[in-house]
Amino acid sequence: MSTLWRLIGDADRVAKLSPDGRARLARFVDVVGQALRQQGRVAVRRWVEGTWLQLGGPACLASETDLADANAFLDLLDQLDAGGRLTLAQLDKETGRLYATPDARSDGSLQFMTLHKAKGLEFDTVILPGLNRKTGSNDTPLMRWEEVLIGDREHLVVLRRHDRAAGRSLPETVAPAPDRRGRDRGTSASRSTH
Questions:
Q1: What are the tens digits of pLDDT across the range 53-100?
Q2: Helix (H) / strand (E) containing 91
Q3: Which helix (H) or strand (E) holds 191?
């Protein structure tokens, strides 16, 4: 397997490029060659950002949000480097968690963002793909309760559940049930929530 740098140095391959292609490649080799000689002498973010700027990276961006996304990547490099966690595997993992910045100039008809970014914002329609997928956790209800009549009032009785981690049963809780119109207050109904 050949590395990119070895292929770039192959005179026969380079000769097959157009004159414009050879000129562009020569500039790339010059900038990256200088960068490789500086590797380890400056902080990783400064090294990558400087190389990107010399190659004309910002000229390839389509919008201001693209610049914000590039800065988010550079900030991530800086954080990983400062924390001593900068490896290709960690960088790959952490970049998978980055999300593009919403376009501030968009008409708002469609925006992609994480559930956490969307939380608290008001949209007419929100589409959450994959909600039908299993999470891998158990399907034990978080809480189970019954509405029971105690005296002349309906109460919510939280049923005992076994806390496996602690090896003990959790206590029951009794609280007045909220009034529900049209409901027969003398009946008992089991409920569970996930």
A1: 999 999 988 877 888 889 999 999 999 998 888 999 999 899 888 877
A2: helix 88-95
A3: strand 189-193
